[in-house]
Recover the amino acids of this structure.
């Protein structure tokens, strides 16, 4: 599903430049649940941003579902993001003046679907994350865990090939974190490819594979015995 | 632009961001409203100005005798010049081409009596043409006519206020007034828009006035109206030739400017019109200033709006919004708001102006108005600049990488 070869990325800071990714090779198959771990500054968020086409690599090859991602214009990047990718952010990034249903329906709007279909689909995904009754509530009326579940529903709504989660539990307490991870595992078990960036080992252990990054290179990449989150709720 | 979903998205955004909508809408509405009201007041000032200064006939020359300041042809300086009937005839004979009307004026102040009432009034000995030149309106009866001049009749035309003072509610036409030691028959009553002072005059044939004064032929001053179709330059030529002619006739040094004084109303009108155009420029300046203030206001709000939405726009981009759709959404929303509120402000401004009428007359503002085209152009201009002002920050926001926009906590 995802294949990257020799990925490099550096940022300019004043006159000097900071080499963040120093040649990353990574292959992820369909249906995998991969945790990308590393301390802050290891380059894990940068890697995720490049995978999410929110940022561009300086060098290297990136294939997403056998489509070579390179030299993207803003518009094609937007279309790819809309078609291939779903994002889950640490700070949820819900639009605060839209209610839960409208937030979930937003990517469908950018897919050009009609209003009726958007509503039905969005409600379906809200039901899936257990928030059907909260459809008309604004984000400010939801708890952190609920917000993240709305965000997950939103990421799923466009039926992406890959879900990218950047510290999805970073702003949540451990109980809510486990709930959210349980949801992610459930979605993964339905066949969705999911990447989770985290620095918490217990979160990483709820994934099927852990890729460890350090100073811009992969230092460890191994399959793990998945901890089933549901058992800990 | 005509996508129903896009409009729904925009209406939703507007409905849920009332403060933002109100701010930008209010700025535009207020800007247009103030512009229209100020511009209308400027036009009201101009109306007042016109009423004050542009009342009398404009194609007139007022010729007054003066005192010479230079010796000439054996005459000493400081000689007093006087006009007489021959001057009238000579002007008529020599300037037929230019002339429309001509009248002498002999001003006197006399005691007037009518059955117990008496008062002092100013009389003017004039010719029939005086009626047109002074724009005298006859309320009843008639003005002095040529027959009166030729026969030196003792007929007079009195002002509205003279009639009111002396005759009270009596009908004055056909009655006799005692002026000096003779009885004069009232043949007409007039009014004049220039004000009360004009309506306290008594007109009589100038020949009659001369007859009373030992049958002399003296004239105080001469008023000439030239054919209006001549235009300004020809009027100046006429004035110059007339001056030369009179100076020659009265043996005044051609370089002496004090012997004959000619006041050209056209010239004065031109000065007044220059003043009016200065007024117009001030009005335009104030208007443009208001518009610029409005444009700056809407620009500031657009920058603020886009700044406030940076994160939202980043989220939208992450969810698949193209830069074009982001710019389009921001612009369409802002144009929608500015158009709606611009038109509202315009309507309120025009409504206010049309309701003022003469209510602000004491502030020299009469019938303020604004041409519809000016109002519409100003509104469109503000909407246009609002869009341009929105486009620049919107484009910048759309080109920020979503990751940067999202990081902006």
């Amino acid at each position: 599903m995802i294949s990257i070869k020799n990925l490099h990325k550096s940022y300019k800071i004043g006159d000097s430049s900071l080499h963040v990714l120093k040649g990353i090779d990574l292959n992820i198959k369909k249906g995998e649940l991969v945790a990308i771990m590393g301390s802050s500054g290891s380059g894990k968020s940068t890697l995720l941003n490049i995978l999410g086409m929110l940022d561009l690599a300086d060098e290297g090859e990136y294939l997403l579902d056998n489509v070579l991602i390179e030299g993207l214009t803003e518009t094609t990047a937007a279309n790819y993001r809309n078609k291939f990718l779903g994002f889950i952010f640490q700070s949820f990034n819900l639009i605060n003046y839209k209610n839960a249903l409208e937030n979930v329906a937003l990517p469908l709007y950018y897919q050009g679907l009609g209003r009726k279909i958007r509503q039905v689909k969005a409600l379906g995904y809200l039901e899936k994350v257990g928030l059907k009754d909260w459809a008309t509530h604004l984000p400010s009326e939801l708890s952190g865990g609920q917000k993240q579940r709305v965000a997950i529903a939103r990421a799923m709504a466009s039926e992406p090939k890959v879900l990218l989660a950047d510290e999805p539990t970073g702003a949540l307490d451990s109980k809510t974190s486990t709930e959210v991870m349980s949801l992610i595992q459930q979605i993964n078990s339905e066949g969705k490819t999911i990447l989770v960036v985290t620095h918490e080992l217990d979160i990483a252990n709820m994934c099927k594979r852990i890729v460890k990054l350090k100073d811009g290179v992969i230092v460890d990449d191994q399959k793990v015995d998945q901890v089933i989150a549901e058992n800990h709720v | 632009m005509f996508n129903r979903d896009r409009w729904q998205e925009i209406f939703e955004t507007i409905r849920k961001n009332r403060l933002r909508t109100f701010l930008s809408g209010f700025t535009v509405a207020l800007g247009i409203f103030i512009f229209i009201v100020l511009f209308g007041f400027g036009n009201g000032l101009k109306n007042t100005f016109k009423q004050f200064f542009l009342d009398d006939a404009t194609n007139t020359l007022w010729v007054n005798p003066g005192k010479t300041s230079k010796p000439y042809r054996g005459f000493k300086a400081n000689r007093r010049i006087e006009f007489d009937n021959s001057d009238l005839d000579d002007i008529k004979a020599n300037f037929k081409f230019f002339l429309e009307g001509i009248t002498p004026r002999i001003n006197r102040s006399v005691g007037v009596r009518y059955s117990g009432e008496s008062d002092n009034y100013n009389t003017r000995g004039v010719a029939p043409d005086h009626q047109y030149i002074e724009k005298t309106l006859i309320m009843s009866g008639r003005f002095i006519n040529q027959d009166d001049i030729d026969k030196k009749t003792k007929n007079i035309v009195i002002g509205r206020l003279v009639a009111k003072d002396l005759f009270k509610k009596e009908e004055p036409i056909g009655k006799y007034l005692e002026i000096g030691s003779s009885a004069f028959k009232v043949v007409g009553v007039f009014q004049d828009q220039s004000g009360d002072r004009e309506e306290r005059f008594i007109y009589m044939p100038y020949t009659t006035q001369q007859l009373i004064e030992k049958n002399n032929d003296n004239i105080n001053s001469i008023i000439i109206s030239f054919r209006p179709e001549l235009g300004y330059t020809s009027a100046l030529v006429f004035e110059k030739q007339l001056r030369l002619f009179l100076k020659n006739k009265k043996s005044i040094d051609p370089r002496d400017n004090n012997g004959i004084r000619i006041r050209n109303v056209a010239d004065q009108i031109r000065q007044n019109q220059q003043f009016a155009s200065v007024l117009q420029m001030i009005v335009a300046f104030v208007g443009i200033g208001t518009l610029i203030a409005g444009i700056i206001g809407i620009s500031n709000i657009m920058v603020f709006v886009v700044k406030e939405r940076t994160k939202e726009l980043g989220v939208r981009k992450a969810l698949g919004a193209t830069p074009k759709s982001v710019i389009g959404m921001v612009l369409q929303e802002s144009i929608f708001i500015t158009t709606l509120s611009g038109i509202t402000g315009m309507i309120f401004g025009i409504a206010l102006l049309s309701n003022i009428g003469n209510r602000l007359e004491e502030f020299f503002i009469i019938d303020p108005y604004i041409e519809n085209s000016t109002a519409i152009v100003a509104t469109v201009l503000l909407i246009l600049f609002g869009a341009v002002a929105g486009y620049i920050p919107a484009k910048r926001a759309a080109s920020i990488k979503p990751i940067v926009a999202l990081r902006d906590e």
